[in-house]
Write a structure and sequence with these properties.
By secondary structure, this protein is mainly alpha-helical. The protein has two domains: about 1-35, no CATH class; about 50-140, Orthogonal Bundle (Arc Repressor Mutant, subunit A), CATH 1.10.10. Helices cover about 40% and strands about 5% of the residues. The protein has six helices and two strands, in the order ββαααααα. It has helices at about 50-60, 65-75, 80-85, 90-100, 110-120, 125-135; strands at about 5, 20-25. The chain has a two-stranded antiparallel sheet with strand order 1-2. Helix 1 crosses helix 3, helix 2 crosses helix 3 (about 80-85) and helix 4 (about 90-100) packs parallel to helix 6. The longest helix is centred in the middle third of the chain and has 13 residues, at about 50-60. It starts with a strand and ends in a 6-residue tail after the last helix.
Amino acid sequence: MNLTILAGSMPAAYGASRLGYHFEGTEPPAFFEPPRAPNRSSKPHRNPIVVAQEWQRTLDSGECASRADLARKLGVTRARVTQVLGLLELTPEAVEGLVALGDPLPKPIVTEHGLRSILKLPADEQKHVLRGIVESPVMG
């Protein structure tokens, strides 16, 4: 019998790369998982501002009495609801420009994380940064 080395095999129990060994003519060990292609999400890219507006409308309509109630309904934490709703604190012009991008987005043009960092900027700088995003050639 010949020894075969399975380079890059992934032991399922450990979640780390290790070499796996088995003899030709026998089945690979049960822990052997062949390498997989990276996970490509086919999920649409939601516009974070539109999501925040939807959540705010749910609160304003009385469908959910509080952020905690909304969090329970959505299956997220109250802190998460606060993070998303915080995006609405961008300047009104910025919110309007971001909504104009549409929903869902063709690709992740804007992200919630990126928008949260822009929130810390003064209003005139927010407009400047967001103008670059909205007019970016990335959209094409």
